[in-house]
Each structure stands twice: as structure tokens, then as C-alpha cells.
């Protein structure tokens, strides 16, 4: 059974909130974890074929000048589909990243065999006293080492990976040895009030 600490953690920067409204990816960042260690990474700007808004330029720090010389989304996604292969995937607020991953891969007739997990949903269950579930706030709340860079894809993927491994390690310290990816998915779908019962049952 695939382990929770052997996954690919990814993050997209995009032109907006929804591929259904014509928004495209403008950067992808990802790290590959094997047994809790980063063994590979992927980072690439991608040209969506149109100018991005000044809001997105300011929010991400990715400018139209930077994107003008970047390869096309299709070109980048071909490489990225080979990078993820059949691995399970993690993102913070995964429904957002999954929408863009699915939309961009559909354009090039590619898919993926792995499943998606969400570090935000797991954090809501395992870090119930956090003041916020934004990535930066969780990283600060759990005193996870960071360089303060957010809203660039690779930096966010690296931070998400650290947060994910922190939660996996917390489970191990609480007596749940080698939590599987499937178990983390189960945690993310369990009602907050029933999480302690789930964990207690797993420890037996």
C-alpha cells in the first residue's frame, strides 16, 4: 500500500480561479517525496497565450515580461505528465490544483493514474486549533522552517511538502506507524468530531 510520505506535492499559479472560465496555468512547481525525503523537483513558468492581469502580476510576482519567453502550457504539461507518472499527488486546497491539472492535461490528451490528497483538509482534522488553514499561516503556526516566500509555485509546493510530512510525523509520534496515503485520505474525509476515534482505532 502506498505510503503517505512517498508522494508528489504540487502547486499551480494561474491567471484566475477557474479553467471553466478560460483561466490557464502560468507556473507549476512540484517536489517528489520518497520515504519522506525530497528526491526530485519540477518548476516551470508557462505562457498561457494571453496577457495576465496586473492583479495576478502583483499577487504572484510573475510578470507578462517573464511569461513572454516561457514555453507554452502544452509543452510544459507534456514534461510534467512524465514527471508525475503514476505517483499519488498532494496539494494544499487540492480541488483548485486538481481542476487546473485536469484541464491542462486534457488539452494534450494526457492523464494520470495516481490519486489526489489535500493537505488543507487533513490539516483541518489534525490541527484543529489552528487560527487559519492558509498555507502560510499553518507553516507559521507549526513553526515549520520557511523562507517567507509564498505564491510562487515551487516555494508553495516545498512548504506544502514540509507541512504534509509534519502531519505524517505527528501521526507516527502518536502511535500510528507508517500511515498510508489511503489513511490520510480517510482522515481528510472524516468529520472533525470523529477524528480522535478514527486515530484511536488505528492505534489498536
Automatic annotation (TrEMBL):
A GO molecular function held by the record: DNA-directed DNA polymerase activity
Annotated SMART domains: EXOIII (SM00479)
EC code(s) of this entry: 2.7.7.7
SUPFAM superfamilies, A to Z: Ribonuclease H-like (SSF53098)
Domain called Exonuclease: residue spans: 6-173
Pfam families attached to this UniProt entry: RNase_T
Database matches in Gene3D superfamilies: Ribonuclease H-like superfamily/Ribonuclease H (3.30.420.10)
Keyword presence, Nuclease: yes
Catalytic activity: DNA(n) + a 2'-deoxyribonucleoside 5'-triphosphate = DNA(n+1) + diphosphate
InterPro entries: DnaQ, Ribonucl_H, RNaseH-like_sf, RNaseH_sf
Presence of keyword Membrane: no
The organism's place on the tree of life at top rank: Bacteria
UniProt xrefs under CDD domains: DEDDh
Keywords, in A-Z order: Exonuclease, Hydrolase, Nuclease, Nucleotidyltransferase, Transferase
PANTHER family reported for this sequence: DNA POLYMERASE III SUBUNIT EPSILON, EXODEOXYRIBONUCLEASE 10
Entry protein name: DNA-directed DNA polymerase
Organism encoding this protein: Vibrio spartinae
Source species taxonomy: Bacteria, Pseudomonadati, Pseudomonadota, Gammaproteobacteria, Vibrionales
Amino acid at each position: 500500500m502506498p505510503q503517505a510520505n512517498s508522494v508528489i506535492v504540487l502547486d499551480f499559479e494561474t491567471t484566475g480561479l477557474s479553467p471553466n472560465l478560460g483561466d490557464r496555468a502560468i507556473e507549476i512547481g512540484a517536489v517528489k517525496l520518497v520515504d519522506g525525503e525530497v528526491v526530485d523537483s519540477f518548476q516551470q513558468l508557462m505562457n498561457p497565450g494571453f496577457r495576465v492581469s496586473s492583479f495576478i502580476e502583483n499577487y504572484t510576482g510573475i510578470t507578462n515580461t517573464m511569461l513572454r519567453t516561457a514555453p507554452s502550457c502544452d509543452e510544459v504539461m507534456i514534461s510534467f505528465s512524465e514527471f508525475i507518472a503514476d505517483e499519488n499527488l498532494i496539494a494544499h486546497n487540492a480541488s483548485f490544483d486538481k481542476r487546473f491539472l485536469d484541464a491542462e492535461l486534457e488539452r494534450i490528451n494526457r492523464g494520470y493514474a495516481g490519486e489526489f490528497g489535500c493537505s488543507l483538509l487533513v490539516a483541518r482534522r489534525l490541527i484543529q486549533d489552528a487560527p487559519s488553514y492558509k498555507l502560510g499561516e499553518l507553516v507559521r503556526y507549526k513553526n515549520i522552517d520557511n523562507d517567507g516566500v509564498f505564491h510562487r509555485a515551487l516555494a508553495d509546493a516545498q512548504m506544502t511538502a514540509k507541512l504534509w510530512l509534519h502531519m505524517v510525523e505527528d501521526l507516527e509520534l502518536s502511535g500510528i506507524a507508517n500511515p498510508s496515503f489511503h489513511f490520510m485520505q480517510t482522515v481528510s474525509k472524516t468529520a472533525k468530531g470523529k477524528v480522535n476515534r478514527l486515530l484511536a482505532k488505528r492505534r489498536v
